[in-house]
Amino acid sequence: MIKIGQLNTLTVVKEVDFGVFVDGGEDFGNILLPKRYVPKGTRLGDEIEVFIYFDSQDEIIATTEKPLAHVGQFAKLNCISTTPVGAFLNWGLPKDLLVPFSEQRIPLQEGRSYLVFLYMDNASGRIVGTTKFNKFLDKTPARYEKGEQVHVTIVEETDLGYKCAINDAHSGLLFKSEVFGKLFVGKSLRAYVKQMREDGKIDLSLQKLGRGKLDDLSEKVLHTLELKGGFLPVNDKSSPDEIFELFRTSKATFKKTIGSLYKERRIRIEQDGIHLTK
């Protein structure tokens, strides 16, 4: 079944002077892939990965260009114009993405970037964006395991920390005590489920839990030492900023890691830094 606003692998069924048609099935019939997007050497019967959306005439169309986001995803996009019907954002395709006024938490301004969620509007059948994305989160039960790796997008900064969208589907929170380095709304990164609360809320961590984060960091420290000729000018006396710049981790975790490596006699800790043991 064809998914509008998503990548689909479809079969070329007809060639014309202005492009090719791909098979959209019973629901959509043949869908045009304009000539400028047809890969060189394409023939009848070939399967092509295409993105399906509506063009400026609201006709269904295919393209091999990759948009900045698909339906069901978050993206930080630049507002290129505002009109009586809403704001238009650049999402990497010829037809810009509409964010209707009714879907704007605050009025969007031309020239600024905003985090939006893309969805199919049931009333119009169009792909649109919204900054009122909370209503699209937590619509399905969250079934994550403690320690599970997830993809998160920062959606809001709060007094407690950073509210995140987990896998574009659920809400979670990164407490400020779990954050090292600079985060901002729209940033996407890897995180781990720290706790599933009884009230359904999800706490997150940017580092693996327990021994796992130490093991990962140990390998990273040793690998970096090898690349740098067996010496790094950081130790347990270095500033948190210096440590984060090198290893994207907290000073406490770094100290535990090099302490374990020292006990295993894999490194030496000196006043000038850490040395790889030969």
TrEMBL record:
Residues 3-65, 145-207 form the S1 motif domain. GO terms for molecular function: nucleic acid binding. InterPro entries: CvfB_fam, CvfB_S1_st, CvfB_WH, NA-bd_OB-fold, S1_domain, WH-like_DNA-bd_sf. Pfam families: S1_2, WHD_CvfB. It comes from the Bacteria. Signal peptide: none annotated. Belongs to the CvfB family. This is GntR family transcriptional regulator.
